[in-house]
Each structure stands twice: as structure tokens, then as C-alpha cells.
């Protein structure tokens, strides 16, 4: 079978199973052939070997069962960085690039200490380090598999960040930072969003929080105060409908300059605040 035929046929099969069927099949076939998506267009008459065809078929079958493309290829691009992914962490999402942009906008100093809590693949910490090489970037995660993955991504990309295993601040006694960022779990366990798409395959520990999804957001707002330098910022990603309650928590805990920022779709998704009040 030729490349163009294989793509067409697989895209038709996935049409009802994925909102991005055509993109999915291109990414999967490029992965099988070890080529770029552009290559597929240039060499659309290349004939697949039996082995290539069978590997591709197996991936299309897995994708049609709902498995995320990023777990099938083991990779996902974030902030222009190619990251390894696996089932022990959340798949980095374009939405979270908003958190990176907001962090770069709020801290202009070429040096400083930054912490990423619940780093997963290391996406946010690595994006920040790639933009501000002078920053000392630390990243923690509670899950061993995530710590190993973030470590490996940092090594492969040649970006020096310190990755430590820690349940939020537990292993960071006495450490203080100029900026703390996090994309914590913030989805309510009853949210219908969890029944569709990639989230069904992702670790619940990275997605779901008790107290209607606010448990970790509120915990971080309370406990970050002991780990921020004077005039340090805490910056959190949250759901589009959670801004008000998150700002309320920042207010009650005595922060100032509280502001919610929008993602590329215009949704309020990141709230940041200064500690302590000026
Ligand atoms: N924004 C992600 C989603 O909607 C969830 C990320 C998170 O819980 N931190 O799938």
C-alpha cells in the first residue's frame, strides 16, 4: 500500500473515533517510518513494506480504541521542545503554554529561582529553562515515573534543571523561590470531561482533585507562602470556570496583585499573585 492510500484509509477508519483523525494518522505513520509529516507529502507514492504496514495497522487499532497519540508515539511537542511522554504523566497540552508565557511575562530578571510543582514530563520547567538559561529551575513531582521522565527529557534536551521527588512542598523544607508555577490537578471527579478523549488514559492523580477540583489549588496557595521570597509570585493553571474561587483563596491568604490571565482561546486559565502584599 502507498503512503497516500494508507493515510486515506486510516483517516476514514478513525473519523468517528477522533476529532483530529487526519492529523493523528499522519503523526502515527511518520512515527512508524521515522520521518517527518512533510516527508509523507513529498513521498506519498512510497510503498510501505509489510512490516511498516503491520506496525501502522496496530497503532491505528490502538488509536481507534482511544489511546492517545502521544502515548503511542511516546512523544509530544511543547513550546517547540520534543518531549518523551508515557502513561505515568499527563500529556503536555497547548493550553499550558499560557502558563509558560505568563511566567516569562511576570519575571524579566535574567537570574532567579523558579519552582515547577507537579512537573510531569518536565514540560513547563524545561520551557522556562530554554527561554531563560540564567534561571535556576527546580521541578518536583510526587510520582517516581514522572521524576524519571522529567529527568530524561532534561538530559536529552541538554537543559539543566533540578528534578526531585516530592509531594508538593514536602521535600523542600526551608527552600524559597522568586516564582512558583504549577499545573496541578483541578478537575472534579464527577466532571463529564473525564469520559471522553485522551483523559481516559491519563493518570487520575494528575487530573482529579477533591473539593470540587479545588483541593490542590487551595493547598498550594496556602503553603506556597512559606516558599516564596519577598515579592515572589505564585502562578497556577486552573479550569476556565475556577478563576473566581481561586482569586478568593489568594485574597484570604494575604497575597496582592491578584490577576487572572486568558489562554489562546480567550478563556481565563491562569491566576497569579504576589507574596506578600506590597
Ligand atoms: N486541562 C486539562 C484537561 O482539561 C487538565 C489538566 C489538569 O488537570 N491539570 O484535560
Automatic annotation (TrEMBL):
EC primary class: transferase
Q: Where substrate is bound, by residue?
A: 183-186
Q: E.C. number, please? A: 2.1.1.297
Q: Does the keyword Methyltransferase apply?
A: yes
Where in the numbering of this chain does the Release factor glutamine methyltransferase N-terminal domain appear?
5-74
Query: Keyword annotations for this protein?
Result: Methyltransferase, S-adenosyl-L-methionine, Transferase
The question of whether Transferase is a record keyword is answered with yes
Query: What PANTHER family is this protein classified in?
Result: HEMK METHYLTRANSFERASE, MTRF1L RELEASE FACTOR GLUTAMINE METHYLTRANSFERASE
Family, as annotated: Belongs to the protein N5-glutamine methyltransferase family. PrmC subfamily.
Q: Which HAMAP family match?
A: RF_methyltr_PrmC
The role this protein plays is: Methylates the class 1 translation termination release factors RF1/PrfA and RF2/PrfB on the glutamine residue of the universally conserved GGQ motif.
Name-wise, this protein is: Release factor glutamine methyltransferase
Lineage here is: Bacteria, Pseudomonadati, Pseudomonadota, Gammaproteobacteria, Oceanospirillales
Amino acid at each position: 500500500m502507498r503512503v497516500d492510500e494508507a493515510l486515506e484509509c486510516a483517516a476514514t477508519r478513525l473519523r468517528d473515533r477522533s476529532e483530529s483523525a487526519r492529523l493523528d494518522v499522519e503523526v502515527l505513520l511518520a512515527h512508524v517510518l521515522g520521518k517527518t509529516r512533510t516527508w509523507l507529502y513529498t513521498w506519498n507514492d512510497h510503498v510501505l513494506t509489510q512490516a511498516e504496514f503491520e506496525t501502522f495497522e496496530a497503532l491505528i487499532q490502538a488509536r481507534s480504541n482511544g489511546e492517545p497519540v502521544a502515548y503511542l508515539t511516546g512523544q509530544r511537542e511543547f513550546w517547540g521542545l520534543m518531549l518523551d511522554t508515557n502513561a505515568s504523566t499527563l500529556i503536555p497540552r497547548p493550553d499550558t503554554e499560557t502558563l509558560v508565557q505568563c511566567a516569562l511575562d511576570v519575571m524579566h530578571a535574567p537570574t532567579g529561582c523558579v519552582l515547577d510543582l507537579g512537573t510531569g514530563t518536565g514540560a513547563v520547567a524545561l520551557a522556562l529553562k530554554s527561554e531563560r538559561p540564567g534561571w535556576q529551575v527546580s521541578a518536583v513531582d510526587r510520582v517516581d515515573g514522572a521524576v524519571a521522565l522529567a529527568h530524561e527529557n532534561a538530559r536529552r534536551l541538554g537543559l539543566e534543571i533540578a528534578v526531585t521527588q516530592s509531594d508538593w512542598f514536602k521535600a523542600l523544607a526551608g527552600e524559597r523561590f522568586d516564582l512558583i508555577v504549577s499545573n496541578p490537578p483541578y478537575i472534579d471527579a464527577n466532571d463529564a470531561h473525564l469520559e471522553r478523549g485522551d483523559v481516559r488514559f491519563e493518570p487520575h492523580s494528575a487530573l482529579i482533585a477533591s473539593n470540587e477540583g479545588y483541593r490542590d489549588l487551595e493547598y498550594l496557595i496556602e503553603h506556597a507562602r512559606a516558599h516564596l521570597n519577598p515579592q515572589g509570585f505564585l502562578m497556577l493553571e486552573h479550569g476556565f470556570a475556577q478563576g473566581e474561587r481561586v482569586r478568593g483563596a489568594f485574597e484570604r491568604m494575604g497575597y496582592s496583585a491578584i490577576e487572572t490571565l486568558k489562554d489562546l482561546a480567550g478563556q481565563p486559565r491562569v491566576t497569579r499573585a504576589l507574596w506578600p502584599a506590597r
